What we know:
30% of the residues lie in helices and 24% in strands. By secondary structure, it is of the alpha+beta class.
Amino acid sequence: MQRLAQAGxxxxxxxxxxxxxxxxxPWTLVISGPVLGDDGFVRAEEVTLSECxxxxxxxxxxxxxxxxxxxxxxxx
Length: 76
């Protein structure tokens, strides 16, 4: 997360008690900031924190070559 901040991104990770109680996707990851260009943000909503990080960081990695380094942090 520190490397993302150093790269100019803001990261928010949240768990929602209402969606958790309803058996939904309680985890949310949002990565935003001007360094993400015109799209402006990456968002993922998943059942587990690990899956949320995997989906969100993969989406960020696909935003361009400057984000290829996040692959080393994507959970398996």
